[in-house]
Design a protein that fits this description.
Blueprint: E1 2-5, E2 11-14, E3 16-22, E4 25-32, E5 38-43, E6 48-53, H1 55-60, E7 71-72, E8 81-84, H2 93-99, E9 109-115, E10 133-138, H3 150-156, E11 161-165, E12 180-184, E13 187-188, E14 200-204, E15 207-208, E16 226-230, H4 234-241, E17 249-253, E18 261-263, E19 274-278, E20 284-286, E21 296-298, H5 307-314, E22 322-324, E23 353-355, E24 376-378, E25 400-403, E26 411-414, H6 416-419, E27 436-440, E28 448-451, E29 460-462, H7 473-479, E30 486-488, H8 501-509, H9 537-583, H10 593-596, E31 602-607, H11 613-626, E32 631-632, H12 634-637, H13 644-653, E33 655-662, H14 664-668, H15 670-686, E34 691-695, H16 707-715, E35 719-720, H17 726-733, H18 762-774
Parallel strand pairs: 6-8, 8-9, 9-10, 10-11, 11-12, 12-14, 13-15, 14-16, 16-17, 17-19, 18-20, 19-21, 21-22, 22-23, 23-24, 24-25, 25-27, 26-28, 27-29, 29-30, 31-32, 31-33, 33-34, 34-35
Antiparallel strand pairs: 1-2, 2-7, 3-4, 4-5, 5-6
Helix pairs in contact: 7-8, 13-15, 15-18
Length: 775
C-alpha cells in the first residue's frame, strides 16, 4: 500500500498514486485501489475530494459498501465530498464515508453526480449526515424518468442550499427552509411550493410548465431577493417574472434568439435594486413603472442600438448609481432615431459610474446630463475621434475619471480657452472648472498634445501607446506643474534629438512622476530614454553638421565660380556657342534654328546662270514666292555698282539657305561657280547644311566638272527637276515658311561688314577662291 500526505496534512492510503503538477506542486492526485474499481480524486487547491466508481464495479457489486476505495489514515475533515457514478448504498452514505475516515459530523456539502433514475434515490440514504448543502446531478436527460422522489424533496427542504441538475422537481413542502436553490436543465410542472425562506434562486435552462401565468410562479416567495435566469424559454420568463414582487437583484442571461424586447415592469418589484440583462440579442428593454430603488443596471453584450429607447427607461430609475451599456456594437449614445438633441437632458443626482465601452459612440454629447456625483465615465474602445470637453456631463465632484482608451483621438488640447466655456451647473453662477481627477487616453492616435493650463486637480494622465514624437517646452512644463500628478507615456515614438531636448530634460527631472519611465524608448534606435545623456543631444547633432559644412563649402564656392564664368562666356560668345552646339546635334531641345537665324531676312538666296534666267524668273521663283518664301536674287536684290564678290558673300550670309540652279550654263559662268564655292565654304565653316543643289539637266554625268563641285555632288544629296516629288523635297529642304523677319527692302544691304554674323571668316576664302578663278 502507498501513502500520500496532502498539503493539508492528511494522509491517504491506496494502491497507486498519480499526480497532475501545476507550478511545480501537485494540483490533483488520483489514488486507486488494487482492482481500480474505486478511485479517490483530491484537488489540493480546494481540498475537494471525489470518490468515483468504475462501470465494472457497478455491474459486479450490488451496493456501494462492496466497492473498495482508497481511504484516509485517520478521521479527516473535508469541506466537500463528491460521490460520482456509483450505485446506491444498502445503508447510508454516512456509514460509507465513516469507513473511509471522513468526519461526517463536520461535512457541510455532499455532491451525488451521474445518478440513475432507477432504482430511485431514497431519503434514508442521507441519515446520519449533518450537511447543509446537497447537489444532485442525474445522468439521464429524459426528464420523464428522472424525477426527484417526494421523500428526497422533503429531506432537501430541511437544508439551506440545494442544487438539482437534469431532473423534474416536485412541489416543495410548505415547511421548506431552503434559502438558496439552483435548478439546472430540468423543469417544473407545478407551483414551486413552500419558498417562504428562499432568498436566492438560479434557473439554468429550466422550464416552468403548466402554471397560471397571471398568478406568477414566484408570487409566494416573499423573501426572494435574488433571481438569476440563464438560457430561459420565453414562457419561463413570463411565468417566473410575473409578480416576483420581492426581488432586489435580477440577472437574465442568454435570452432566446427570437426575443428582441423584454419588459421588467411585470415583476411589480418596487424594491428592485439591480438589473442585469446581457449576452442576448435584445435591442430594447422596457421599464414602464417607476423603480425608485434601482441603483445598478448592466445591459452589456446585447444589441441595443437606439439611445431613444434608453432615455424613457432612465426616467424611471432616477436614483441610478451605476450604468453599464458596454458591448452593444450598434449603439451610438449620441445618435437617436428619431433625432433628439436633448436625449441626455436627464437629472440623475446619484449617478456615479457610466460605462459604455465597445459601442459605436462617436463623440461626447452629455452636456445636458446633470450627474452631479459622477466619478467614472468610461467610453473606451468606441469611435470617438475628437476630445471635446464641452460634451462632458454636469458634475460637482473633483474625482471624475474619464476613460477614453482605444479610440481614434488624434489631437488633445488643454489650452484654457478649450475648456473654460464649460456650461454652468445649477449651483454656481461662475463657469465651472474642468475637475478631472484622471484622464485615460491609452491606445489612441494622438500625434499632437498641447497644454498650457492643465486642471490643477488632474492627478493622473495616461498617454501611453499613442503617436507622440515631440512635445514642446510649454506643454512639458504644464504636464508636471503639479507634483502630485502622475503620467504614463510608454509606447510612443519619442524622438531623442536636439529639437526635443527641452521635453527630455523636463522628463528626466520629473521621472518619479512618470510611472513607466523605465519603459520609454527612443524612436531612432530603441534605446531606453533613461540611458540617454540629454545634455549632449544638440552637441552630437551639431558636430556632423559642421563637418559636412566644412567639406561642402569649397565645392560650393567652386560651383558658384564656374556658374559665374559660364554666364560671362555665354553673354560674350552666346551666338557662336549656340551654333556650335546646334551643328553637332547637341542640346537640340534648348536650341532652335529660328533663333540662330533671327538676323537673316531672306529664306533662300538663288544662284543661277544668266542663261537660265527665263526658267528661274518665270517658273521657279514665282512658285516659291507664291508659298511666301522670301527670296534673294542678284538681278533684283543686289545693289548696282557694289563689288560683286562682296554682294555674293553678303547674300549668302543674310539668307538661311543658298540654292544653286545647276546646269551646263551654270558651270560655264565664273560668277556662278564663285557663288557655289563661297556657299560651300560657308557651309563647311559653319558645319550646317545650308546649300541646296537643284539640277536642271544631266550635267552630273559630265566628266569634266569642277573637282570641288564633282566631289560635292558625289557626297551630298541633290534635287532634280525631273523628279515627280521635286517640289515636296524642295519644301522639306527649305526653312519653314514665314519665320524670317518681315521684309523692309529687297536690296542687299551694303553696310554689312565682312564679319557679318558668325561667318565673317568666309570672306578671305571667297577672295582667295575668286582670285584663283580669275587667274
Amino acid at each position: 500500500m502507498l501513502q500520500y500526505t496532502t498539503s493539508y496534512g492528511d494522509t491517504v492510503i491506496g494502491e497507486r498514486l498519480t499526480f497532475t503538477m501545476t507550478f511545480g506542486k501537485p494540483h490533483c492526485i488520483y489514488i486507486v485501489d488494487k482492482r481500480r474499481e474505486g478511485v479517490l480524486t483530491m484537488i489540493e487547491a480546494t481540498n475537494s475530494t471525489t470518490f468515483s466508481c468504475h462501470n465494472r464495479a457497478n455491474d459486479i457489486y450490488n451496493s456501494l459498501e462492496e466497492i473498495k476505495f482508497p481511504y484516509f489514515e485517520k478521521p479527516t475533515k473535508l469541506p466537500k465530498v463528491q460521490i460520482r457514478a456509483c450505485i446506491y448504498p444498502n445503508q447510508t452514505y454516512a456509514e460509507i464515508l465513516k469507513s473511509l475516515n471522513v468526519d461526517v459530523d463536520y461535512l457541510p456539502k455532499l455532491v451525488l453526480s451521474e445518478l440513475f433514475a432507477s432504482p430511485p434515490l431514497q431519503a434514508s440514504f442521507f441519515s446520519g449526515l449533518r450537511i447543509s448543502n446537497l447537489e444532485l446531478s442525474y445522468i439521464e436527460n429524459t426528464l420523464m424518468q428522472s424525477r426527484v422522489p417526494d421523500d428526497v424533496v422533503n429531506y432537501t427542504s430541511t437544508l439551506k442550499e440545494f442544487y438539482l441538475i437534469g431532473a423534474l422537481l416536485p412541489t416543495l413542502p410548505n415547511n421548506s427552509v431552503l434559502e438558496t436553490m439552483t435548478l439546472d436543465s430540468g423543469k417544473s410542472r407545478n407551483a414551486l411550493g413552500g419558498c417562504s425562506h428562499l432568498r436566492q434562486l438560479t434557473l439554468i435552462n429550466w422550464n416552468v410548465h403548466g402554471f397560471n401565468v397571471e398568478k406568477g410562479w414566484l408570487s409566494t416567495c416573499y423573501n426572494l431577493t435574488q433571481l438569476v435566469l440563464r438560457t430561459p424559454s420565453v414562457d419561463t420568463i413570463f411565468r417566473v417574472l410575473t409578480n416576483a414582487t420581492s426581488l432586489r437583484k435580477l440577472e437574465i442571461t442568454k435570452l432566446p434568439i427570437n426575443m428582441f424586447e423584454i419588459e421588467i415592469s411585470i415583476t411589480n418589484a418596487l424594491y428592485l435594486e439591480s438589473i442585469k440583462i446581457h449576452k442576448s440579442r435584445i435591442y430594447r428593454i422596457v421599464i414602464k413603472k417607476g423603480l425608485p430603488l434601482v441603483a445598478d443596471i448592466d445591459f452589456s453584450d446585447n444589441d441595443l442600438w437606439n439611445p431613444a429607447h434608453i432615455r424613457p427607461m432612465l426616467l424611471h430609475v432616477r436614483l441610478l448609481t451605476n450604468a453599464t451599456l458596454s458591448n452593444n456594437p450598434r449603439l451610438d449614445l449620441c445618435t437617436a432615431q428619431p433625432l433628439d438633441e436633448n436625449i441626455w437632458d436627464i437629472w440623475m443626482p446619484n449617478l456615479r459610474r457610466l460605462v459604455a465601452t465597445r459601442t459605436a459612440t462617436t463623440t461626447l454629447c452629455f452636456q445636458n446630463l446633470q450627474a452631479l456625483s459622477l466619478l467614472i465615465l468610461d467610453l473606451s474602445s468606441c469611435n470617438i475621434s475628437t476630445l471635446d470637453f464641452t460634451g462632458l456631463p454636469r458634475f460637482n465632484s473633483s474625482q471624475l475619471k474619464l476613460r477614453l482608451n482605444h479610440n481614434a483621438i488624434e489631437k488633445v488640447s488643454f489650452e484654457h480657452a478649450d475648456y473654460k466655456q464649460l456650461q454652468q451647473n445649477e449651483i454656481t453662477t461662475q463657469p465651472r472648472e474642468l475637475s478631472l481627477r484622471e484622464l485615460h487616453l491609452q491606445g489612441n492616435h494622438i500625434k499632437n498634445f498641447t497644454a498650457n493650463d492643465l486642471p490643477e486637480k488632474l492627478r493622473f494622465l495616461d498617454l501611453s501607446f499613442n503617436r507622440l514624437s515631440y512635445i514642446d517646452n510649454e506643454t512639458a512644463t504644464a504636464l508636471f506643474s503639479s507634483k502630485k500628478r502622475h503620467i504614463k507615456l510608454a509606447g510612443n515614438s519619442i524622438v531623442c534629438d536636439c529639437q526635443n531636448q527641452a521635453f527630455l530634460t523636463i522628463l528626466n527631472e520629473h521621472k518619479d512622476q512618470v510611472d513607466d519611465y523605465n519603459e520609454l524608448v527612443c524612436k531612432e534606435d530603441g534605446n531606453l530614454i533613461s540611458n540617454v545623456t540629454v545634455s549632449t543631444l544638440c552637441v552630437l547633432e551639431s558636430q556632423p553638421q559642421s563637418i559636412l559644412i566644412r567639406m561642402l563649402l569649397p565645392v560650393l564656392l567652386a560651383m558658384i565660380g564656374l556658374i559665374v564664368l559660364a554666364i560671362a562666356v555665354y553673354f560674350r560668345y552666346g551666338k557662336a556657342i549656340k551654333i556650335f552646339l546646334y551643328a553637332r546635334g547637341l542640346c537640340l531641345c534648348c536650341l532652335k534654328e529660328e533663333k540662330l537665324d533671327a538676323n537673316r531676312p531672306f529664306d533662300v538666296f538663288i544662284s543661277f546662270s544668266h542663261d537660265d534666267e527665263d526658267y528661274v524668273l518665270k517658273k521657279f521663283l514665282p512658285e516659291l514666292e507664291k508659298e511666301h518664301y522670301k527670296t534673294c536674287i542678284h538681278n533684283r536684290d543686289w545693289i548696282i555698282g557694289e563689288w560683286i564678290p562682296k554682294q555674293i558673300s553678303v547674300s549668302i550670309e543674310i539668307s538661311r539657305r543658298t540654292l544653286i540652279i545647276l546646269s551646263r550654263n551654270f558651270i560655264k559662268s565664273v560668277w556662278g561657280m564663285l557663288e557655289f564655292r563661297m556657299a560651300h565654304a560657308s557651309m563647311l565653316n559653319e558645319g550646317r547644311a545650308r546649300l541646296i543643289v537643284v539640277v536642271l539637266d544631266d550635267i552630273v554625268k559630265e566628266e569634266h566638272l569642277d573637282p570641288e563641285l564633282k566631289n560635292y555632288l558625289r557626297t551630298n544629296t541633290y534635287l532634280e527637276t525631273s523628279d515627280p516629288w521635286f517640289w515636296d523635297k524642295l519644301r522639306f529642304a527649305l526653312p519653314r515658311r514665314g519665320l524670317s523677319p518681315p521684309e523692309t527692302s529687297h536690296e542687299v544691304p551694303v553696310d554689312v561688314p565682312n564679319d557679318f554674323g558668325p561667318y565673317g571668316v568666309v570672306m578671305p576664302v571667297v577672295q582667295r577662291n575668286f582670285n584663283d578663278s580669275v587667274l
